[in-house]
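Exercise 7. Given the encoded structure of a 68-residue chain, write a plausible sequence.
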């Protein structure tokens, strides 16, 4: 049961990252570091996390404006 749950979680986060990346690109924002956190996949029953780090102030400002 845990393996099925973990597989569904991984699939869900893969889809979510793709959708988030596409939505950001439509707003003219590219976050190359947006990905599934590899450390969260290493757990026995993984519930992966989305990782995104290191964006510039320009990207952060554009992201905030796009979300308003």
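Solution.
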């Amino acid at each position: 049961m845990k393996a099925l749950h973990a597989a569904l979680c991984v699939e869900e986060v893969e889809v979510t990252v793709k959708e988030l990346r596409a939505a950001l690109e439509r707003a003219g924002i590219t976050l190359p570091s947006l990905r599934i956190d590899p450390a969260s996949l290493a757990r026995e029953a993984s519930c992966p996390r989305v990782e995104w780090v290191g964006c510039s102030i320009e990207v952060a400002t554009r992201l905030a404006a796009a979300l308003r």
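Remark. The longest strand covers residues 35-36. Students should compare their own answers with the one above.
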